[in-house]
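Give me the 3D structure for DUF4145 domain-containing protein.
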Amino acid sequence: MELDEINELEISLGVDVGFFQSLLTEDDWSFVIKLHALLEAATGHLLVEHFDDERLVDVIAHLEMSNQRTGKVGLLKSMELISSDHKRFIVSLSELRNSLVHEIRNVNFSFKEMVSKYSDKEFQNFMKRFGLFLSSEQLSEKMYAESAKNDPKLFIFSSSVALLTFIYLRKKTSCYQRFFKAVKLVNEEPN
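Predicted structure for DUF4145 domain-containing protein (191 residues):
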């Protein structure tokens, strides 16, 4: 079900259906860059949909993604369109992306290598920043940590499934809210 929503979101963003799933076949560096681009487009699309004003497309597209005061994330969070966990994930992905793109030597970046160098505290922080799809109540702490350690790319991908599905559903909710508001206004007008 979640991939159906993501496929619909891909269509509305103008990328090929299956683009998101194809990210798993990318090297880790490309995965981060392309996933960030997809999330940036999706969050911008959600904002335009929420404001229901196509004139904002270009303005919103040029907003910085993870600026918590004046960027897309700041707007989304202040308007309660995303949760604190979503915000943390997006900001963390943006920070990782920025650290990778500004140094070409990072083109050989490896999630497994990065995670293998983490102290226990750093690894716990990694799981908190990038783990959206399950909580420790749903999965034993040990299994949760193993999934993040054994395949950190899949761990982040799974969280991205949850986030993109949420964005798609939030976009739909904005449409319904506008519809019901319009119906209410029409019904309240004197004849």
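The radius of gyration is 18 Å. Let me know if you want a second pass.
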